[in-house]
Amino acid sequence: MRWFVLLLLFLGAVINFADKSIVGLAAVAIMKDLNLSYTAWGLVGSSYYWLYPVTGIFGAALADRLGAKKILGFLMLTWAVLQFGVLAITALPLLIVYRVLLGVFEAPFSPVAYSHANKWFPPKLRGFANSVVVSGGTVGAMVVAPILVALIATLGWKVAFACLGAASIVWFFLFQFFTKENPVEMYKEKQKEKKVKLEKLKLKDFLKVLGSPTALFTTFCYFSAYFLVVWFAVWLPIYLVEVVQLSAAQMGYSVAIIGVASILIYVGVSMLSDHLFKKSQNWRQSRVYVVAGAMIIGAIVMASSTVFQNPIWVVVAMCLAKGLTYAILPIGPTIMINELPERGGLMTSILTSSGNLAGIVGPLLTGSLIALAGANKIAGYNLSILFMAGLVLVFSILFAIFVKPISAKKNEDVSNGKVVGDEGQGNDSVLV
């Protein structure tokens, strides 16, 4: 059952990020249809994240109380309604309203999905499980790009959006009727105990956890990586066409190649992290140093694309940059949940929502840089790439220095008939 749950969480992430990224793939068509400038397009990209941090925290906190199954099902239905609503968009204001609402109801998905996977998998597999969920985002944003580009070209961008709405409806029925909320019945008793703890949690204690170097610099590092997440979703397709001079078809295949390669890279990094954790039980060696090292290399490689702008190298550099920099996305939630396990959904929502603040600034910054560059668009894109690479480099170094996760938590999880603590030690328990 846990693997089926993980499969659906993966597919949910595919839909989630396809919803986010299709606007980038359809950028040329939308800008032409609605007569939008680069500055206006930056506003469109930014609008998705205006309420994202707030609703992400609220939705994940609600899932801690009501259950992930109910919240995820509700979210999927709202996505379907909004995607079908695209058929009525005729001007920039309506497009912005659509993007704001989509961000409102898509924000809780990632933190709730990470928390839900956390319930189904033992600590030694959580890095891998979260990397699978993250890879769903890459598949949705990049690997399915040729399919979405073909839909946009043949059916038009509005119908392509509606097709994603239909996919949300299919996922809703599969998740609601073929999965369970928890691994075993005894876990429900643990949830009842957690609800009591939630009510007794003092704000002062909670803020102390959030202000700790571990939570603070994990969030900063995630924030820096999310500049790339947004850039890849909103600007990469246009960058490949206008700067690298690829055709629409070549752009679609290049985006897919970058997506597939990056999945292999960050899943590999997550598996390495899990392996080292299982072997040493050392959080800093297995989680912090592995992630920081990967991100530092990724930032340097991405910066190199501004110097060596051969199309082949640009694609290779983007593969490495995306794969290595995204290492924080699956590992960051495990670190945050470890700091306050009884508030898993809330902790991950603060991480992802704080990171998504980059979504507000990133598209506007890139759009402004391109507009300021005037006829020299390449300079505008290069400045945005160097800014992101520098940000990731600085925060990944700070992450390596200051993040020291609590390594002695005695949290219990049920897996393969055992209750497993955060250190990977198992105790006999009721079988599933």
Automatic annotation (TrEMBL):
InterPro entries named in the record: MFS, MFS_dom, MFS_Na/Anion_cotransporter, MFS_trans_sf
Sorted UniProt keywords: Membrane, Transmembrane, Transmembrane helix, Transport
Subcellular location, principal: membrane
Domain Major facilitator superfamily (MFS) profile: start-end pairs: 5-408
Keyword Transport: yes
Organism: Sporosarcina soli
Topology in the lipid bilayer: Multi-pass membrane protein
UniProt-listed SUPFAM superfamilies: MFS general substrate transporter (SSF103473)
Any Pfam family the entry gives: MFS_1
Annotated TM spans: 36-59, 71-90, 127-153, 159-178, 214-236, 248-267, 288-306, 312-336, 357-375, 381-403
Subcellular compartments: Cell membrane
Name used for this protein in its record: MFS transporter
